[in-house]
């Protein structure tokens, strides 16, 4: 079984959308659909329920997610150990919650590419609980999340503070009654704060894991969402989004965690120093 089939399956299982998965993987939608079909034929089961408007994992699909993650990680570790990558390169395995990639990590990866030219990057997306397990199991080198664990032998570094503001496609959106709200997952702290402030008045229309998906969605369909200030600045300037008057602004700290005794400590420190927050 080709590892590309599993990586494609994992991306579709997370996005539940062939178009979004194809964009994330830099493939055509036809190629993504073909890979999923090949995997299903190889296993002799259906992995997705296609009868509804939105894809849904079947029971067999849910079972495969865990095994596929482990197989992909193991394959990458095997390549690392036996030196399939260039002998002169250093491998850096990075894991993160899905919503953090668009906020700060895309730019950070570009900085690594430009400044640490001997580094070979591997990136993965996991839940907060799985990120901790991946770090302690030494399957990834650095993990990014909103609420870091306090575990012995794990180093925690704050790498960014992200301001969040409520924006709407309506110029005069009413803070008294928030409608067509797209709730983005910024971790339990922000979610709980929002519920306390707006739980009785806000109508949550959709829940989405990535701010970029929420941004694109409300620009197309209308609505409002809490989004990182830097992500919606241009749309506000162009008059496509508007800051909701009277709405509270939130902020969210982002942390990197890694093993204190990692044999890649020097590389990890060099990579983290590319965050502006740590250099200031």
Structure description:
The chain is of the alpha/beta class and 280 residues long. The protein has helices at 3-15, 18-25, 29-43, 59-82, 98-115, 128-136, 188-198, 211-221, 229-237, 265-272, 276-279; strands at residues 48-49, 56-57, 90-96, 119-125, 142-145, 154-168, 181-184, 204-208, 224-228, 242-243, 250-259.
**Poorly predicted ranges (pLDDT <50, ≥5 residues)?**
none
Number of strands: 11
- Global morphology: globular
Q: Strand percentage, roughly?
A: 15-25%
DSSP helix fraction: 40-55%
Structural class: alpha/beta
The helix/strand order is: HHHEEHEHEHEEEHEHEHEEHH
Please name the defining characteristics of this protein:
single chain, nine-stranded mixed β-sheet, 280 residues, alpha/beta
Summarize the structure.
The protein is an alpha/beta fold and 280 residues long.
SSE order and pairing:
Layout: H1 3-15, H2 18-25, H3 29-43, E1 48-49, E2 56-57, H4 59-82, E3 90-96, H5 98-115, E4 119-125, H6 128-136, E5 142-145, E6 154-168, E7 181-184, H7 188-198, E8 204-208, H8 211-221, E9 224-228, H9 229-237, E10 242-243, E11 250-259, H10 265-272, H11 276-279
Parallel strand pairs: 3-4, 3-5, 7-8, 7-9
Antiparallel strand pairs: 1-2, 5-11, 6-9, 6-10, 6-11
């Amino acid at each position: 079984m080709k590892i590309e089939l599993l990586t494609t399956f994992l991306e579709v299982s997370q996005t539940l959308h062939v178009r979004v998965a194809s964009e994330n993987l830099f493939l055509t939608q036809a190629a993504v659909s073909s890979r999923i079909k090949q995997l299903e034929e190889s296993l002799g089961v259906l992995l997705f329920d296609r009868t509804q408007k939105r894809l849904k994992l079947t029971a067999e699909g849910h079972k495969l997610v865990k095994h596929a993650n482990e197989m992909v990680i193991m394959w990458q570790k095997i390549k690392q150990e036996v030196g399939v990558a260039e002998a002169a390169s250093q491998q850096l395995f990075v894991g993160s919650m899905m919503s953090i990639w668009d906020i700060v990590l895309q730019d950070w990866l570009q900085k690594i590419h430009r400044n640490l030219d001997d580094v070979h990057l591997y990136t993965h997306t996991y839940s907060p609980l799985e990120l901790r397990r991946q770090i302690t199991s030494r399957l990834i080198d650095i993990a990014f999340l909103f609420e870091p664990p306090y575990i012995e032998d794990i180093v925690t570094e704050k790498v960014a503070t992200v301001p969040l503001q409520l924006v709407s496609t309506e110029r005069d959106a009413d803070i008294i009654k928030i409608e067509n709200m797209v709730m983005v997952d910024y971790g339990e702290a922000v979610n709980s704060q929002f519920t306390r402030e707006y739980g009785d008045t806000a109508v949550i229309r959709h829940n989405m894991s990535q701010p970029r998906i929420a941004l694109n969605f409300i620009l197309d369909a209308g609505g409002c969402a809490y989004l990182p200030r830097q992500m919606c600045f241009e749309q506000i300037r162009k008059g496509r989004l508007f800051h909701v008057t009277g709405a509270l602004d939130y902020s969210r700290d982002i942390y990197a965690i890694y093993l204190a005794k990692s044999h890649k400590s020097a590389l990890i420190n060099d990579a983290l120093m590319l965050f502006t927050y740590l250099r200031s």
